[in-house]
Write a structure and sequence with these properties.
The complex is a heterodimer.
Chain A lengths: L1 H30 L5 H11 L6 H14 L6 H13 L14 H36 L4 H13 L4 H15 L19 H38 L2 H8 L4 H39 L4 H11 L2 H29 L7
Chain B lengths: L1 H7 L2 H18 L35 H37 L1 H16 L2 H11 L6 H11 L2 H16 L1 H8 L4 H37 L10 H10 L2 H4 L2 H29 L1 H8 L2
Helix pairs in contact in B: 2-3, 2-12, 3-4, 3-6, 3-7, 3-9, 3-10, 3-12, 4-7, 5-6, 7-9, 9-10, 9-12, 10-12
Classes of the chains: A mainly alpha, B mainly alpha.
């Protein structure tokens, strides 16, 4: 009971508030722009040489206003914005004109999700295992070598690292395809060649995310293990003759895992934007590339859709990790 | 002097210090540049590196060497503006939320949680689209400063929280030390290395984000920075045309900068943190 009242309810309130504030920001920012998306659409149509009668033009403007959610006062727009959100409707994309934003996101989402899930799981596991071992045997040679390597990789931002990898492996050595999610013009079908093709194209973006992620996890885990290792209770257990295997798994790793779970929750947002940037570099057909095109064409509906979706997704993921935390750490009793 | 000598015993500090000094000299060379970095066509186009043009020239008819000096300088300026402003906020928020706690603390941590949880990159992209036309070095620095403090405020807060539970805090409070002297005298020595290493980390975050925003075309492309240099090289297809000197200059410069900043931050915080210092000496 104390858990529910003392922790769960405040945490849920916070969760809802964060989403509320985040989505309100998403609503406000585009409306601060001086340029009017409706006028821009019309200007673009004109520049393509189409001419409209004044009467048709007016009704066209009204339609556009409705599509962009720009009808009525700011408050009415805000209300309508939430109504649309609850229906999961983000309006029509501008850059692929009559296609609804939802449909574009739905096509791109599986690409991003699978890339992100896979790379996060791989790098978290691998990084923590190697990092834990390197921290425990921190005086050994291989541990130091690994440490130096990560010291070079770690500070590089996603964009520079993936671009460097692209230059090296796709242009200089031509091992991997330069861009795309599949070969150009390949239809989506579920057979072996198609899946192999997808994997071949996803390999470089995945590799750059995995290397960067692993380096980060390796380093924090190594540091944490080193610190836990120096704690009195570990020294005491060592002197008391606890077997090496048990010492590593039950005394050191178990205590060192806790901060790693928190950091996972906190870094989800960064991993997410890192994946977007990596996708842009490799023209991988996920949300990142969609976002890039939306930015280039000033497609606010689409940007709002992607941003709103990621706010909800990331806050929810963090909430879940937070709620699971007491199961990992018996010392934490939410009260 | 002794501190510096001790620090130089760490190879990472020595290397990163040298790289940064070289980069700083390189950046300050921009004051003696014979060309205005915003002009096009001041030199012949697409020349390979030679003695006249140390790093070659690009398709815009600019000398890459001098262009790069401006790029490093401007990237550092943006980073310094953003990182130092956000440090002030981070330290204040972290200390107040950590030590005072209570309602203020909850509200402050709530705000920083909002910043952490929202995909900032996307919000920054949206804001950058807004001010795209008026983007200067200072606006960009301010924009990134607004978003750069939350993570570090949390780190500082958690350190203060753990310090508050230590015995010496009890001793100090029971023997009548006031809040301000306690925070300044007892906690500052612990938090200074942290603040300093977050400052450097934040600088490299800012430089990285600037490069990313430039790639998306969301900064003023006429101002040479590491990001805009790379962006021009990519948009002129320097990769496909084989102008390696054009594409590699900003990449290598930024890798040097990132690695140097990071090593500096790690070595300094290790030096200042007695616990890891003991490990390093091997006692």
């Amino acid at each position: 009971m104390t858990f529910i009242r003392g922790y769960l309810i405040p945490r849920l309130v916070q969760y809802i508030l964060v989403i509320f504030i985040g989505l309100t920001v998403v609503f406000i920012i585009p409306r601060l722009t001086p340029s009017d998306p409706v006028r821009r659409t019309i200007a673009q149509l004109r520049s393509m040489g189409s001419y409209l009668e004044p009467a048709t033009m007016n009704s066209f403007i009204e339609d556009l206003n409705e599509m962009y959610g720009l009808e009525g006062s700011m408050l009415e727009q805000y209300g309508a914005f939430w109504v649309r959100l609850f229906h999961g409707d983000f309006g029509v994309s501008f850059f692929q004109f009559p296609t609804p934003v939802n449909k574009l996101i739905k096509t791109a989402l599986p690409w991003t999700l699978s890339l992100l899930l896979l790379t996060t799981i791989i790098s978290w596991t691998v990084g923590n295992i190697i990092g834990g071992l390197a921290g425990y045997y921190s005086r050994s040679r291989w541990s130091r070598v690994l440490d130096t390597i990560t010291m070079v990789i770690r500070p590089l931002p996603y964009y520079i690292f993936s671009f460097g990898l692209l230059l090296l492996l796709a242009y200089v050595f031509e091992i991997f395809p330069v861009s795309g999610g599949t070969d150009i013009g390949r239809r989506i079908e579920f057979n072996l060649p198609f899946i192999l093709d997808v994997l071949k194209h996803a390999f470089l973006p995945a590799l750059s995310l995995v290397i960067l992620g692993t380096a980060a996890w390796f380093q924090t885990m190594k540091l944490v293990v080193q610190n836990v290792n120096a704690e009195n209770f570990v020294q005491y257990a060592k002197l008391g003759g606890v077997k090496q295997g048990r010492l590593v798994s039950r005394y050191v790793i178990r205590n060192a895992m806790l901060p790693q779970i928190t950091v996972l929750a906190l870094q989800l947002g960064q991993i997410f934007s890192g994946a977007l940037i990596t996708e842009i570099v490799f023209s991988y057909p996920g949300l990142g590339l969609l976002l890039y095109n939306a930015i280039l064409t000033g497609d606010y509906n689409l940007i709002m859709g992607i941003t709103a979706l990621s706010i909800v997704a990331i806050t929810t993921a963090i909430l879940i990790i937070d709620l699971l935390y007491p199961f990992f750490d018996p010392r934490i009793r939410y009260s | 002097m002794k501190t510096l000598k001790d620090l130089f015993r760490d190879y990472r500090f020595a290397i990163s210090f040298c790289i940064l000094v070289v980069l700083l000299i390189f950046a300050s060379l921009s004051f003696f540049s014979p060309y205005d970095p915003t002009f096009w066509g001041t030199v012949p186009r697409d020349l390979e590196p030679s003695w006249t043009y140390l790093l070659g020239t690009n398709s815009k008819g600019q000398d890459i060497f001098w262009q790069a000096t401006f790029a490093v300088r401007n990237s550092l300026i943006i980073a310094l503006i953003a990182a130092s402003l956000s440090r002030v906020v981070a330290v204040l928020v972290g200390m107040v939320a950590g030590y005072k706690g209570g309602f203020t603390g909850t509200v402050l941590m709530f705000i920083s949680d909002v910043f952490l949880v929202i995909p900032l990159f996307l919000v920054i992209v949206m804001l950058a689209m807004l001010v795209r036309e008026k983007m200067t070095l200072i606006t960009l620095g301010l924009l990134l400063a607004i978003f750069g403090w939350a993570w570090d405020a949390r780190i500082i807060r958690s350190q203060i929280l753990s310090l508050r539970e230590r015995e010496f805090t009890q001793t100090a409070v029971l023997s009548g030390t006031g809040t301000v002297p306690l925070v300044l005298k007892e906690y500052m020595p612990f938090t200074t290395p942290l603040v300093f290493s977050t400052l450097i980390n934040n600088m490299s975050w800012v430089i990285g984000l600037e490069i990313t925003l430039a790639y998306l075309g969301l900064v003023n492309l006429e101002i040479p920075t590491l990001g805009t240099m790379l962006q021009w090289a990519i948009s002129y297809q320097a990769v496909l045309l084989g102008y390696w000197w054009w594409i590699l200059t900003p990449i290598i410069l930024s890798i040097l900068l990132f690695v140097a900043l990071y090593w500096l931050s790690v070595s300094i915080s290790e030096y200042l943190d007695p616990r890891t210092r003991i490990q390093r000496v091997g006692a």
